[in-house]
């Protein structure tokens, strides 16, 4: 569960595997593939386990891997090779990656294998860069991704579906998905001449549930395609629940970070209860950690990480560093966490997945990289690779012009999914078949008994700006547990709740659907509440295609009302701002959103992701050099709350492109230079 949250737990990204089967009378009876050795051509490498020597075997020789996690969906495809080459230069001999179901299957019966979703190309490049591959197809991956990588449309098709269980609806859909995915990858399995040596079954399941019927089914469904040509494995958190994640005839591994390195002997003992023989494996060793909005950025000391890595390797263990390169949750792909025991409630993950990893968000080497490389070099031969990192360039301040009011007739026509959907109760995002973005819920207010009267929403996922006749009256928040606010008589007739999906929960998946749930009620004179009905739900997916289409055609739009254009606090709803900047030399850069409120940004039509600098800690959005071109480039900002103002209040609001990331501080009212 790559990088998943626990009350003080590690990101999970498993990296080791083995299909258990009888081999010879002298061994414990476990082997690495379900297929027999004569199924693999003699001239091809084979990956097995020596249970007497407690070692992996590759081509008949003892083998130990030091792997790094890099998820193809967190970097643009043009950057894949450079990121992989930087990883290989550190001495890593294996790559660990998840496969994200929701990316490839965004709507029922719709599949995507192009661009950032071209997982086959990514794995083929990894092979070319001399990596063995640890594949983690899930189908649930966590990874701090929206819904843990499970498609949102499952909730619409099966409102009561029980994810990650033996629910017939769930396993039927997993079966359909694997039938699409697995045949594409079979030629890459080590037994078929490729370099995938291990394939994970589920992900940190023991900490979630204890449904062995489901796990056994998923093992068999995975093995149907792997056919003994690679090792099946599991990863589980080292605790009393490990047995719930253990699957018969599948090799077991564990995960832990620097906070538990002093417990390493006890952890290995817990693993040995589940897996008595074979190599020791830490499938997710955490050199950094995940970060939520409104909390301090997570950092881990590089020397402490290097020392802990050396300790793990001193046991002749194999290890995967999660993350070695973290990258970015572009668009609306960042997830969220919810921890009842820890008391944090709902907390959305930031857009950056820098993770304080061994490489930084732009793929550059760090002091932590140098320390980790030195340790790896004590155990594995370091390749001679020359790196050519991209330049990081500050393009400076860019003024942006307010160009479109989202709640206006023009805004609805340009950016909504279509006409409003009418219903007695508000429609959820999933019922509207909407992955993310915004949904506007509107209804007419009755005559009010009280002045003011309390407006109460039973549950909202996740944040709502509340308007009456398009005048802002307050904000509701799942994070802050604010579900009510007062309305006064005479404010207007139409109640409007603009709801934002801030990311579906990625750990402990619990059907985290989005929108308004239960009743929206208005306080009555007798102390009761009147449920409001007859709603109009308007979807704003905010996909990059529609935003860029509007930008290209905006010459036909009328000028924005001057009053709206001058607003700093956006009291009449979100505004779209546009600007252009000239690039003479292409390089990586960072879009500095200091002084802005909350929203989403696009460069050359590409959705960089959510920003929220007033909450922090992330202030800048990473802009890959591959998105830019020499000459004129575009920037589009959809701001929900407040615009930045430059020193001269008469000037246009502005953003800034910097050469350095800001991930460690709340920015507040910063004035751009």
UniProtKB/TrEMBL annotation:
Keywords: Glycoprotein, Glycosidase, Hydrolase, Membrane, Signal, Transmembrane, Transmembrane helix. The chain crosses the membrane at residues 12-35. Residues 55-377 form the Glycoside hydrolase 35 catalytic domain. The keyword Transferase does not apply. The active site is at 204 (proton donor), 284 (nucleophile). Residues 574-633 form the Beta-galactosidase galactose-binding domain. Residues 426-525 form the Beta-galactosidase 1-like first all-beta domain. PANTHER family: BETA-GALACTOSIDASE RELATED. Belongs to the glycosyl hydrolase 35 family. This is Uncharacterized protein. The lineage of its organism: Eukaryota, Metazoa, Ecdysozoa, Arthropoda, Hexapoda.
């Amino acid at each position: 569960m790559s990088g998943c949250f626990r009350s003080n737990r590690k990101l999970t990204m498993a990296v080791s595997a083995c299909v258990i089967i009888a081999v010879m009378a002298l061994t414990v009876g476990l082997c690495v593939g379900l297929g027999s050795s004569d199924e693999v051509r003699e001239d091809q490498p084979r990956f097995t386990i020596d249970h007497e020597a407690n070692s992996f075997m590759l081509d008949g020789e003892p083998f130990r891997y030091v792997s790094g996690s890099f998820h193809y969906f967190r970097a643009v495809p043009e950057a894949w090779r450079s990121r992989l080459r930087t990883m290989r230069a550190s001495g890593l001999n294996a790559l660990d990656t998840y496969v994200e179901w929701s990316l490839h299957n965004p709507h029922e019966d719709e599949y995507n294998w192009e661009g950032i979703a071209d997982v086959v190309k990514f794995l083929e490049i990894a092979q070319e860069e001399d990596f063995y591959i640890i594949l983690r197809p899930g189908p649930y991956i966590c990874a701090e991704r929206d819904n843990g990588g499970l498609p949102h449309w499952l909730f619409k098709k099966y409102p009561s579906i029980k994810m990650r269980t033996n629910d017939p609806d769930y396993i039927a859909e997993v079966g359909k998905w694997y039938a699409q995915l697995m045949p594409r990858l079979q030629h890459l399995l080590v037994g078929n001449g490729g370099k995938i040596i291990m394939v994970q079954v589920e992900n940190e399941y023991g900490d979630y549930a204890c449904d062995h019927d489901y796990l056994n089914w998923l093992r068999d469904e995975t093995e149907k395609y792997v056919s003994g040509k690679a090792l099946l494995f599991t990863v589980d958190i080292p605790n009393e629940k490990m047995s719930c994640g253990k699957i018969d005839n599948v090799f077991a591994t564990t995960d832990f970070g620097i906070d538990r390195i002093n417990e390493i002997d006890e952890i290995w003992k817990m693993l040995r209860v589940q897996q008595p023989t074979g190599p020791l494996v830490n499938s997710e060793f955490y050199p950094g950690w995940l970060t939520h909005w409104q909390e301090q950025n997570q950092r881990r000391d590089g020397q402490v990480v290097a020392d802990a890595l050396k300790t793990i390797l001193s046991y002749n263990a194999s290890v995967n560093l999660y993350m070695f390169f973290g990258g970015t949750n572009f668009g609306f792909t960042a997830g969220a966490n919810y921890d009842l025991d820890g008391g944090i409630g709902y907390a959305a993950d930031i857009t950056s997945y820098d993770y304080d990893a061994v490489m930084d968000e732009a793929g550059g080497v760090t002091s932590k990289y140098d320390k980790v490389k030195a340790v790896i070099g004590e155990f594995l031969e370091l390749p001679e690779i020359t790196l050519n990192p991209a330049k990081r360039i500050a393009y400076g301040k860019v003024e942006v012009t307010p160009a479109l009011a989202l709640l206006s007739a023009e805004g609805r026509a340009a950016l909504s999914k279509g006409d409003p959907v009418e219903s007695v109760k508000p429609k959820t995002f999933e019922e509207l078949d909407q992955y993310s973005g915004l949904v506007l819920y509107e209804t007419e207010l009755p005559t009010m008994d009280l002045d003011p009267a309390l407006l109460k929403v039973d549950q909202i996922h996740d944040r709502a700006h509340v308007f009456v006749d398009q005048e802002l009256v307050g904000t509701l928040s799942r994070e802050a547990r604010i579900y009510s606010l007062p309305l006064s008589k005479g404010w207007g007739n139409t109640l409007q709740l603009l709801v934002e999906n801030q990311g579906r929960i990625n750990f402990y998946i619990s059907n985290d659907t989005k929108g308004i749930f239960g009743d929206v009620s208005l306080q009555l004179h007798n102390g009761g509440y009147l449920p409001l009905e007859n709603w109009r739900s308007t979807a704003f997916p905010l996909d990059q295609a529609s935003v860029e289409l509007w930008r290209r055609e905006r010459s036909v739009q009328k000028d924005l009302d001057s009053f709206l254009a001058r607003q700093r606090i956006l009291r009449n709803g979100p505004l779209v701002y546009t600007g252009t900047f000239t690039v003479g030399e292409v390089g990586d850069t960072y879009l500095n959103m200091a002084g802005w409120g909350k929203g989403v940004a696009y460069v050359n039509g590409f959705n960089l992701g959510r920003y929220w600098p007033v909450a922090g800690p992330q202030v800048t959005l990473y802009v890959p050099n591959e998105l830019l071109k020499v000459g004129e480039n575009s920037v589009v900002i959809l701001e929900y709350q407040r615009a930045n103002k430059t020193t001269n209040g008469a000037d246009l609001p502005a953003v800034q492109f910097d050469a350095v990331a800001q991930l460690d501080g709340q920015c507040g009212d910063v004035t751009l230079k």
